Amino acid sequence: MNNKFFKKAKKFLPFIGIIIFIYTIYALDISDIIDAVLSINPLFLLLAIPLTIPRVLIRNYAWKLIMDEQNIQISYWNLLSIFLMGYFYGTITPGYLGQLMRIPYLKEKTNEPYGKLFFNSSIETIVHTTTLYLMMFIGALIVLGSFPQLLTITVSWVIILSVVLLIFIRKNRGEIIFKKLIHIFIPKSLKIYFQDFAKSFYTDFPRIKKLLLPAFLGLFTWIIIYSQYYLIIMALNLPIPYLYFLLLFPVANLAALIPISFAGLGTRELIAVILFTTLFSVPDEKIFVVSLLGFIITDIVTGLIGLVKELFYRKILWCL
Questions:
Q1: Are 63 and 79 in contact (CB under 8 A)?
Q2: DSSP 33-85
Q3: Res. 219 pLDDT band, cuts 50 70 90
Q4: pLDDT for 145-188, tens place per residue?
Q5: Residue 94, strand partner residues
Q6: Which has the closest alpha carbon to 295: 240, 256, 248, 259?
Q7: How far apart (Å, rounded) are the C-alpha atoms in residues 198 and 67?
Q8: How many CB atoms lie within 10 A of CB 191?
Q9: What is the pTM assigned to this prediction?
Q10: For residue 287, which of 219, 247, 229 has the smallest C-alpha distance?
Q11: Sequence ranges of the domains in the chain
């Protein structure tokens, strides 16, 4: 009975965010949202979209540094294609989990073991989001008087993530846990494949000091992302200081990582509306528009580029 329930729940879980998204539109009044969109100065949107290029190039360079540290041989431009294709899958899946589709593409280009590639992709994501948590922590401190619960949520999330990393960062400890998980959850016929996966997981484990520069570059990509969002703030002439927005919007972005919606659609918008309307008394429909258009400019546009690359890759479009 429980298994059937959870199987059905998993199918509908990603649609929770869509329900939240529709409810938010209903609660705000769609006519006000349309008026807010029509009031935008398009010049700011034209300034925001091109910032996607340096953001993607910088993040891909940071990933290439991790690749080099793990002795995975692949060119920058091949890696960029894989990054974009993975980004496309990330934008259409809950919690951006579709980015794991990068792994089979990497396998084809590098012929490295799946375990090693899985770790590489995971560590890139973790390193990239590390500075996001730092921004969230500072933002939570700034609004401690108005939203004391934000600091608790942020600290709790960082502690949980840190504990998981500390468990798996040690090879001996991690391999023991992998063996236990494989023994408990994996069918006997598949055990050998997962054992090979676990053995290659720690191959060419990166040095922590070599991850500092990729993390620092990740900070720049987040600043670019939220600057793209802030240009929409400027287009709507909202009285929100840049630094406050830069440090507070990551809280809404964290909600997008919860796998209850496709790329966080709905959850991010709801949290953004609650946060910024409370703190700055700005029209809620305008904050909704900022969050939605920002998502389209930063994620959907990048995902569409990835879709084009995917179509080229599968030779659905004429090959480059």
A1: yes
A2: HHHHHHTS-HHHHHHHGGGHHHHHHHHHHHHHHHHHHTT----HHHHHHHHHH
A3: very high
A4: 777 877 887 888 788 888 877 777 777 777 777 777 776 767 77
A5: 262
A6: 256
A7: 19
A8: 13
A9: 0.82
A10: 229
A11: 13-112+209-313
